[in-house]
Design a protein that fits this description.
Structural class: alpha+beta
Number of helices: 4
Strand order of the largest sheet: 11-10-18-15-14-13-12
Order of helices and strands: EEHEEEEEEEHEEEEEHEEEEHEEEE
Strand content: 25-35%
Number of domains: 3
Largest sheet: 7 strands, mixed
Helix content: 10-25%
Length: 308
């Protein structure tokens, strides 16, 4: 489990933040922790009387784990239910790939060895700019995984890296989304825009970005994470909105012109409001030369409008 509720403070605390330096929880193994009910899929109701009182234990991360191939990797900290099977508890499952990616990113964040590659708003196709996480004022006490952000619409981030102050390029922080299944381009753009409106830049990680996926480790093909800064997302959104508005105005103008030609204005002023079948066309009386509009559906409709 990625986080737990502290029995004294009643706060939901991420295991990451404890190991990354949260000063409020320096001795996590001596604290009493409860599982977040939202992470429990099912449980034995006869053995578990109160789902809010399921005790969990803190497990420290391991910086050096060796697998059977002799490969060294890191395991991020977590919480676990020691008597889970006895109580018939099932937690919401997570894919192996997601867990491996989060371990990889945790390792890089902890060692401050994470580099972001980004494009500026003025040069939207140039991703040669790089910045290391050391150069950003990261609030390590709030770095988290599977974090829910509430605003006008609730969104859940796979990984979130908040900043202590607003950055002119990256906003209030960077959200990392892990997407190993296919996703429509329109959906990606929509998610980018939604996170940007909440003040965050976003980084997408796809299955093609990784190599050497095994039981314990996963490696990126490139060492840098490509980030879409909030400034660029909003810049692109503004340009697209202006372009769409111009196209809409242009299309509306064309429709009006076509309708005008169809109606032959000013010799026709529109559909007949009385019968709805004919058009009000201009006519001139033989005697006196007075002008008036009559329905083209005459004699079935005798609706007329005189011109003063």
């Amino acid at each position: 489990m990625q986080g737990a509720i502290n029995s004294k403070t009643n706060e939901y605390i991420q295991a990451w933040t404890i190991e990354l330096g949260n000063p409020s929880y320096q001795f996590p193994k001596e604290e009493i922790w409860f599982a977040d009910p939202n992470e429990i899929l099912s449980y034995n109701k006869e053995k578990v009387k109160d789902i809010k009182k399921i005790e969990v234990k803190y497990r420290k991360g391991n910086d050096s784990v060796i697998n059977y191939n002799g490969t060294e990797y890191i395991v991020s900290p977590c919480f676990f239910i020691p008597n889970k099977n006895e109580l018939g508890i099932n937690i919401i499952p997570e894919s192996r790939e997601h867990k491996l990616v989060k371990n990889w990113i945790y390792n890089r964040i902890k060692k401050q060895n994470l580099t972001f590659q980004y494009s500026t708003a003025t040069r939207p196709f140039d991703y040669e700019n790089k910045i290391n996480i050391k150069e950003l004022e990261v609030d390590y006490t709030k770095v988290g995984i599977e974090v829910t952000i509430k605003n006008s619409r609730i969104q859940r981030a796979d990984i979130i890296i908040p900043l202590k102050s607003f950055h002119f390029l990256f906003g209030t922080g960077i959200v990392i989304e892990i997407q190993f299944s296919n996703q429509y381009e329109e959906t990606t753009e929509k998610r980018n825009k939604e996170w940007a409106f909440k003040g965050y830049s976003i980084c997408w990680l796809w299955i093609d970005d990784f190599k050497n996926i095994s039981e314990e480790i996963i490696e990126l093909k490139e060492d840098n994470l490509i980030v879409e800064p909030i400034s660029k997302i909003l810049y692109d959104f503004q340009n697209k909105a202006e372009r769409d508005m111009r196209l809409n105005v242009q299309e509306l103008s064309r429709q009006i012109e076509e309708k005008m030609r169809e109606l032959n204005y000013p010799f026709c002023i529109g559909e007949c409001i009385k019968c709805g079948k004919g058009y009000m066309t201009k006519k001139k009386s033989r005697q006196g030369g007075k002008e008036w509009y009559g329905c083209s559906n005459y004699p079935e409709c005798k609706h007329t409008i005189w011109v003063n």
